[in-house]
Amino acid sequence: MLALVASMTGDHPARPVLVASNDPGAMGLKRAAELGIATAAVEHRPFKGDRAAFEAALLQPILAAEPDILCLAGFMRVLTPAFVARFEGRMLNIHPSLLPKYTGLHTHQRALDAGDTEAGCSVHEVTAALDEGPLLGQARVPVLPGDTADSLGARVLAQEHRLYPAVLRRFAAGDRSPIFLS
Ligand code: NHR
Fold first, then answer.
1. Residue 22 in marked binding region
2. 180 and 118 share a domain?
3. What is the pLDDT of residues 68-100, one digit of tens each?
4. What number does the ligand 1 atom closest to the CA of 128 have?
5. What is the CATH number of the domain that holds 122?
6. 110 lines ligand 1 (CB under 6 A)
7. Cα–Cα distances in Å, from 88 out to 29, 60, 80, 91, 129?
8. For 43, left (φ over 0), alpha (ψ -120 to 50), or beta?
9. Does residue 140 have a known ligand-binding role?
10. To the nearest whole percent, how much of the chain has pLDDT over 90?
11. Which residue numbers delimit the Formyl transferase N-terminal domain (predicted)?
């Protein structure tokens, strides 16, 4: 998230208008506020599994900010089809695997368990089908001997910080053709 925010300066076609989280304690909210960006925190827990009610609450600050594009970054709540439909074609996510491999959770451990020699991250459009929207970009890293999910995850995260800003810049300029970084 901070890499995205930092990238949106100068001739970048986008500017950050809101950083929102379902975790009021998220460090990113504090950092964003320090940078003068509007922030919102809507905890999901009080809604006890009522995803529609959680999303209705989350929607308020988002609509107030009037964003053209939404970027999920570490957002771990599955979004309902109704929420996705509102923003379809203008909501992105970064996922820590080389999609279509390893949708869902625990991607690094699954890559290690499969004996993969390469891993990476993918930016895709968010659709109702989890981690299955159109691919916008991918970056690859090697899996190294002795890797753990943590060490591999850290290597992938460094690439996430390169890939997501690169994809967002193109997307905001109207270019949806996928890019592949290595
Ligand atoms: N929502 C839709 N409709 N489509 C996508 O592609 C989405 C999405 C919401 C989040 C991010 C995704 C990821 O990059 C994402 C993509 C969380 C889960 C999940 O199972 C799955 C995929 C992603 C994020 N969440 C559990 C839930 O019940 C909670 C898991 C937890 O809290 O640890 O919402 O990985």
1. no
2. yes
3. 999 999 999 999 999 999 999 999 999 999 999
4. 3
5. 3.40.50.170
6. no
7. 25, 18, 12, 6, 12
8. beta
9. no
10. 99
11. 8-168
Determine if ligand 1 sits within 6 Å of the CB of residue 76.
yes
Q: Is the pTM of this model over 0.90?
A: yes
Is 182 a residue whose pLDDT tops 90? Answer: no
84 lines ligand 1 (CB under 6 A): yes
Give the closest residue (by CA) to ligand 1 atom 22: 104
Distance 143 CA to ligand 1 centre (A): 24
Domain-located, residue 103:
yes
Query: Does residue 95 have an active-site annotation?
Result: yes
